[in-house]
Hints:
Elements: H1 3-71, H2 79-91, E1 95-101, E2 107-110, E3 114-115, E4 131-132, E5 138-144, E6 151-157, E7 160-164, E8 182-187, E9 192-196, H3 202-213, E10 226-230, E11 236-241, H4 247-253, H5 256-281, H6 283-292, E12 296-305, E13 311-322, E14 325-327, H7 333-338, H8 342-363, E15 368-373, H9 375-379, H10 382-394, E16 401-405, H11 413-425, E17 430-435, H12 441-447, E18 452-455, H13 457-461, H14 467-483, E19 486-489, H15 495-504, E20 508-509, H16 520-531
Parallel strand pairs: 13-15, 15-16, 16-17, 17-18, 18-19, 19-20
Antiparallel strand pairs: 1-2, 1-7, 2-3, 4-5, 5-6, 6-7, 8-9, 8-11, 10-11, 12-13, 12-20, 13-14
Helix pairs in contact: 1-5, 5-6, 8-10
The structure holds ligand C2E and calcium ion (CA) (2 copies).
Amino acid sequence: MNNIQRGALAALLIVIVLIAALAPAGIGFLFAQRSQRHEESERLKTVANAALNRAEDVTRRLSGALWEIGKVAAAPCSPPYLDALRRIALTHEQVRDAGAYDRDGRWQCSSLLGAVSAGTLDGLTLPAPDWRSRDGVMAWYGLARLPGGKTSLVMGRDGFYVAADPSLYVDSLESLGDPASGVGVINTEVSRVIATTPATDAAAILAVYRTARRPAAAPACDCQPYVVRRSASMPLAVVVSAPQQSLRQRARALPWGWLLGGLAAGLLVAGWAAFFIVRRLSPRGQLSDAVRRHQFIVAYQPIVDLGTRRCVGAEALVRWKYHDRIVRPDHFIPLAEHRGLIQAITDQVLDTILLELGEFLKRYPEYYVSVNLSAPDLTTRRFLDVLGPAIARQGVRPQQIRIEATERSFLDADAAKEVISAFRDAGHAVYLDDFGTGYSSLSHLQTFRIDGLKIDKSFVDTIGQDAASSSVASHIIDMAATLDVQVIAEGIEREEQAVYLHARGARFGQGWLFSPPLSAAEFIRYAGKTRGA
Ligand code: C2E
Ligand code: CA
Ligand code: CA
């Protein structure tokens, strides 16, 4: 992976982590805001229902008192009439005052003041009513009957009236939650505000009511939420609007629990995503991926008889096909060994050999393929147990699969000794690879019973160049002859090397002089050519 790809991946990772961290917090926030709005609107509805009940109840009671006055038989404003008015005013809690007026609307008497003598309260004439029902009930809203006196809500009919405190309509609502909510009661026939809670702007309440009546005309804004309830039996409506909140109040009302919960969940998800991606992108993650996806291919380097130059077999060399690149084993085998992935790779190499060359080996029993094993493959009989049945199924003879083991694979010498014996007993020849490069190649040659050794390329390279070290190859060959083990010389690139090695007694060799590692089809062709077929 180059630096640009790494940079792009890092950027992608950051974006994913950010999305993963913020998305749940955002969703949580939106969700919480919705539920908060829903809660708010439910609360407003509860207040509105209570307010409407209250308004209807007050209206009903005032009408009842009015109806009782209508039944008083005494002459208007006579002492018994005034007594009756006082009794009615006392028994109806909501009634502040009751009284009578003449046909011209002039005030005649009152339960509080008694008979109003002409002259004292001259000019106290009722104005035209704010509302009049079909059956003759009239209402005055916000009427101050005495100069400087309190305003009253007055309901009258046929020359008599009851007066009440307008706040009766809206008191007792404070207990229903947020007292800052504005409540207004409206007469819907004349669109007049009858009463509002303290500090509530009547004009604003009326504006809200008008907007609600014509929703199409409602401006698209995030105005404060409101609820309007209309009475089914009376020309009344109530408007409840939520208070305009200050920034600090809004912040306090934010669904912090949801926000923090969402953020925590997001960070968890992001952490997991980061862990997952980093793992996937790590060499180990990519190699496990490759094992899972069978991304390995095998190249076959012909091994030839140095005398006849005929091909006798091939060494299987694994490659990792990573996207459109081929990765050489030196770059991943150590990691695979370290991370416990090498056995799976060995198995895949064997599967590939049998798939690609199974038929060929069955047909030409004189050829063999040698497989490179690592320490874990040589500590137990596991691979042997896989190998035996697999070649049997293909009809490939045990002699046709040979084993190459380096000194590094002899970590557990006792176990390796046993496993090597088992391979040989099963018919697989075993070679000591990279011979001469380790510290104890000679001692290994004594400890392990093996069939042959592969002279490392470094000793072949010096042939014909440096007399001192080029003789090492010659000594190894002599020693092999003494021990009666076969020799394969690796990395032969020049003809003089091949000639020299053969003259000294090395029977087999491999290297670019003969052929580089080939595909299965190329190897089959190569073998055919050297056979003279
Ligand atoms: P090795 O077993 O010593 O394999 C020989 C290496 O030398 C191969 O490299 C081969 O391509 C290269 N080579 C052959 N002839 C010449 C030549 O004339 N000149 C030069 N310069 N190089 C030549 P490769 O394929 O890169 O393999 C490297 C090492 O990876 C192998 O060394 C072997 O130790 C390991 N290896 C390869 N396949 C496997 C496998 O399936 N399993 C295990 N455990 N190790 C493997
Ligand atoms: Ca080898
Ligand atoms: Ca080697």
